[in-house]
Design goal:
Layout: E1 10-14, H1 25-39, E2 43-47, H2 57-65, E3 68-75, E4 81-89, E5 94-98, H3 100-103, H4 121-132, E6 137-141, H5 152-157, E7 161-163, E8 182-184, E9 193-197, H6 210-214, H7 222-243, H8 255-267, E10 270-272, H9 274-281, H10 284-289, E11 293-301, H11 310-320, E12 325-332, H12 335-338, E13 344-347, H13 355-360, H14 362-382
Parallel strand pairs: 1-2, 1-11, 5-6, 6-9, 9-10, 11-12, 12-13
Antiparallel strand pairs: 3-4, 4-5, 7-8
Length: about 375
């Protein structure tokens, strides 16, 4: 884990993801740096909070490329007026929209969750606002949704009409899907390139699709899950017939309650890995080449970390560059698989404690864990 002994400055890239429910990625960066600096006062840090299209992606984009956060009047998943933000960089003519800003589960109280009524129309309004600014490209982060509407709400905001047997337009929420008999695409062309980013690679339908995998956390009962699955299948059939495309099996189509499917079908979007898109934007490979140690982390490190998640992606790129990489986590599972990718993994807690305690004291615990790790690193450098 030691850098070359003739190196005068120990350069560390600190690139963790969020510790869900406890620390944002930016807060985790600061806590790790504080702890490491106590043990390694001569170290030089490059701070890079990870983002994968979810919370914090837009703000990071703006910070990195000199843009601004735009306030936009829109609607929440139940159609109530709200103000949501998205990132905008005039120089690049690019926008970054987190779908959860308008259509996220966090917008609803627990007793309001209802995927049969929830809609992504509010996210569509954000897309329109960015297009009016003459956006060349819009990156849409898929994650944290309260919806299961397959992007029909976004399509409706962009002018697509969902018609019943009398050719009357329907509000495009899942409870109305059984009444849709025809889809009438808007004559207008949506000019910006749309790139949907997600590290959830699920299809629209099936056991791993959006209804069965994520419907329950959005308020769906077991009976409602089966209703959503059946009606989404019928909806996808109508899309295939009227729009002559079928993306239901595309990895990522089921992300954000099927918004991936909707953006592919109605906006000719592409879907990419959120982490890979972030890594390219931030020139992560170059940053890794320029340091002696790479540090990452997240709330839970387990074998799923290695399947497209940010810390796993950081570890893979560090390994490829021949750089040592360590990780911090609130919990660690499957150490045998993790040790093939990380030089060391450090749990936050150094004594038995409840989940509530560890989440409440996450910042202090992360600082202390980083300081302990820093002492080990200092010993290896001096040996």
């Amino acid at each position: 884990m030691a850098p070359p002994r003739n190196s005068s400055t120990f350069r560390i890239l600190v690139a963790p993801d969020k510790f869900k429910g406890s620390l944002t990625a930016a807060e985790a960066v600061e806590a790790i740096c504080l702890g490491l600096e106590r043990a390694l006062p001569q170290a030089c840090f490059h701070k890079l909070p990870l983002a994968d299209g979810g919370e914090g992606t837009a703000a990071l984009f703006v910070r990195s490329f000199g843009g601004q956060m735009i306030d936009c009047e829109t609607t929440d998943p139940l159609g109530r007026p709200i103000t949501a933000k998205y990132g905008w960089t005039p120089g690049l003519r690019q926008a970054v929209i987190e779908m959860s800003a308008a259509s996220g589960l966090w917008r609803l109280a627990e007793n309001e969750r209802d995927p049969l009524r929830a809609t992504t129309i509010g996210t569509g309004t954000l897309l329109i606002d960015a297009a009016r600014r003459d956006a060349r490209k819009i990156i849409v982060g898929l994650g944290g949704s309260a919806t299961n509407d397959a992007g029909a709400g976004v399509a409706s905001a962009l002018g697509v009409r969902f018609l019943d047997e009398r050719s009357a337009p329907l509000t495009p929420v899942p409870r109305n899907f059984p009444r849709i008999v025809r889809i009438e695409k808007s004559p207008r062309t949506f000019a910006p390139e749309i790139v949907a980013v997600s590290d959830v690679r699920i299809p629209l339908l099936g056991p791993k699709g959006c209804s069965r995998a994520y419907g329950p956390q959005k308020g769906a009962t077991p009976e409602m899950v089966e209703t959503l699955e059946r009606d989404l299948t019928r909806f996808a059939d109508i899309v295939m017939r009227d729009l002559h495309c079928d993306f239901r099996a595309t990895p990522g189509a089921g992300a954000a309650g099927g918004l991936g499917f909707g953006l592919l079908s109605f906006c000719q979007a592409t879907i990419r890995s959120g982490f890979e898109t972030f890594a390219e934007m931030m020139e992560l490979d170059r940053l890794i080449r320029d340091v002696d140690l790479v540090v990452t982390g997240e709330g839970l490190l387990d074998p799923q970390t290695l399947d497209g998640k940010g810390p796993g992606g950081v570890a893979q790129r560090a390994r490829k560059a021949g750089k040592p990489v360590i990780a911090f986590a609130g919990g660690i599972r499957g150490e045998h698989q993790l040790e093939e990718h990380f030089d060391a993994c450090f749990a936050l807690a150094n004594r038995p404690m409840t989940l509530e305690e560890s989440m409440r004291d996450a910042r202090l615990l992360l600082v202390r864990a980083a300081e302990r790790a820093g002492r080990v690193i200092a010993l290896s450098r001096n040996s």
